Amino acid sequence: MAILPIIKAPDPILKKRCAPVERVDDEIRRLMDDMLETMYAAPGVGLAAPQVGVTRRVIVIDTARHDEEPNPLFIANPTIVEASEEIALREEGCLSFPDQYEEVERPERVRVRYLDHENEIREIEADGLLAICIQHEMDHLDGVLMVDHLSGLKRSMILRRMAKLKKAGAPVGA
Ligand code: K1U
Ligand code: ZN
């Protein structure tokens, strides 16, 4: 396994719509394993393939707490098959926006269908942090970023700050 560099905003790769995988084969499994190691090292609770420069519909997530056993989820080609009408407002982070935390509104619960590490079709019913994290990572696969849920003014302030840090070569996050 390998730790991959995480792409920081602004970057055109983060705005691309990702292509589905045909099947979860050895190449995609290797990508999933590298992404998981990268996410744990960051540290984070989720990571989407475009954040490591790969425009395929692949996500890894582990929202287990430090006092719980690791519970990695390997997700390819996710689709939301059901979303609650109930909306939650929660603070989100993003490894492509180090040190930025913003409140975003999303459905409280979702049921998601996907292909797992062994190319098996699975469904998961998620709520709380897991539901938020899955939706955040699925947004990445469509080139939608946390800041795209904010007001235009807030979004451009954050993007300007990120561009400045990048230009200055500041060490932003991992
Ligand atoms: O997509 C990403 O950039 C990962 C992001 C996922 C996420 C977190 C919270 C709400 C929505 C989506 C992160 O993992 S940010 C880092 C973070 O939340 C965290 C870091 C260390 C320990 C626990 C959480
Ligand atoms: Zn993110």
Describe this structure as you would to a colleague.
This protein has 174 residues and is α+β, with helices and mostly antiparallel strands. The chain has helices at residues 26-41, 128-141, 152-167, and strands at 46-48, 58-61, 73-83, 87-92, 102-107, 109-115, 121-127. The strands form two sheets. The chain has a five-stranded antiparallel sheet with strand order 1-2-3-6-7. A hairpin with a 5-residue loop joins strand 6 and strand 7 (121-127). The model has no long low-confidence stretch (mean pLDDT 96). The structure holds ligand K1U and zinc ion.
Topology:
Layout (H helix, E strand, L loop, with lengths): L25 H16 L4 E3 L9 E4 L11 E11 L3 E6 L9 E6 L1 E7 L5 E7 H14 L10 H16 L7
Antiparallel strand pairs: 1-2, 2-3, 3-6, 4-5, 6-7
Query: Which ligands are bound?
Result: ligand K1U, zinc ion
Oligomer: single chain
Widest sheet: strand ordering = 1-2-3-6-7
Query: On the 0-100 scale, what is the average pLDDT?
Result: 96
Beta-strand content estimate? 25-35%
Shape: globular
* Helicity level: 25-40%
| Unreliable segments of 5+ consecutive residues | none
Radius of gyration: 16 Å
Core attributes:
binds ligand K1U, five-stranded antiparallel β-sheet, 174 residues, alpha+beta, 7 strands
Task: Provide a concise account of the structure shown.
The protein contains 3 helices and 7 strands.
